[in-house]
Amino acid sequence: MALLQALLWEESEQDARYVQYFMECLSLDVPSCGSEYSNWRPLMIQAMHQEIAIRRGVVALSALMQERMEHGSVGTHGFDEPPRSRRYLFGLKKYGRALASLQELVKDMGNDRYLTQVALLCGIICIWFEILMRDYLAGLSHLEMCLKIVLNAGPLGNVDSDIQRAYARMDMQASLYVGIRSPVTVPEEMSPIPYVFDSFNQAENCLMEEYARVVHFCRNAGNFYRIRQLGCVPLELVAYTQTLQARLELWKSAFGYSYSCQKAQGSPQTSARASLLLIQYYIALVTASTSVYAEETLYDRFLYAFKRILSLARSSNACQESAAATSLVGVPMKMGVIYPLYFVATKCRDSAVRQEAIDLLSSAPYPDVVWEAPILAAVSRRAKEIEELGLDDNQPIPEFKRLHGIPLAIDYESRQVRVEFRIRSNGMDGEWDDWEECLSW
């Protein structure tokens, strides 16, 4: 501790300004982030004043946040081309020192609860930093190591529950982005869905747990029967998908009743958070309902859900535009509207509805963590062109013309995204026809 105090005492005035900037950012309760960060905020601030690893990480992160905010650039790694600014290089240097301090901390961590939590809080800073740098693989590597710490800690209280929930949220973000990764923080036991939620946070945490369970099932058993064993889905798996849907419906009922009480005395920020949460509910419901079936035409049953997502996204964006939404650039737990809009733009085949989703993507002002609207808008626009080619207006898109999954590989330096398109042009029993295209944004 004496060494720590000495190090902090020698902190420059510049470092102190970056620390103050970070604390000001965390003090803002913007609707685009909601409660995803607010619960672990006091823990972060406390540790920042006690541990040099977090302190250095905060300084590095703040330097990059200011650089990104000032230039508003979305060039290579999210920043302007070389030569790099002094602030950019300063942030990289501080980050290297933060990683060195974190490595020393992990060596001494053992089963110590305090040091475990400090390491996980520092992990949040590192993931956040890598997201700002657009090095998502490095961010995923940090996340995987931290998730091992969370899982190894077990249910004995070695990790604060708010920190656990923060990592569960990042676990979900990574699973949605990577596409082949399954979330690892899903509880095995299904807790009863309350009749009414005591707080908004309780409703939010409950839905995220259900959503993670849906994604976990979809990435494992769902993928096997949707891609490899068409039409051979065991009845017990069909029953399980119905259980997932029923639990989501119970959540919707409880949330609707609970939120009706909050809305009477609510604020625009409360309404924005509710809109974002309901968007996640609809995405989870559609995903659960289609998780074991290969036919893309099944998505046609959910036109009502797609329309509702767009309506909620419009209302959510209206609140975001009036708030300082960019003050927390890259916060790694944010569940925003860009992925849901991309989901609608690629899974809804109503031409007018999916075009509206593409238009909303094209006008989205800021990225949601790893989701960048201009890239996804370009991919969605091309997918719509491929599927609707040769069809008359409002003519239904037949199954053999529909795309199944759209893997992406993004090259930020050339501002191109390599996309793999896949269809079954000879029907569901036929072979895959796939090809790659490079799109610019």
UniProtKB/TrEMBL annotation:
Keyword terms, alphabetized: DNA-binding, Metal-binding, Nucleus, Transcription, Transcription regulation, Zinc
Domain of life of the organism encoding this protein: Eukaryota
Entries under Pfam families matching the protein: Fungal_trans_2
InterPro entries noted in UniProt: Fun_TF, Transcr_Regulatory_Proteins
Presence of keyword Acyltransferase: no
GO molecular function, one term: DNA binding
Keyword hit for Nucleus: yes
The protein's name in its UniProt record: C6 zinc finger domain protein
Native organism: Aspergillus pseudoviridinutans
Source species taxonomy: Eukaryota, Fungi, Dikarya, Ascomycota, Pezizomycotina
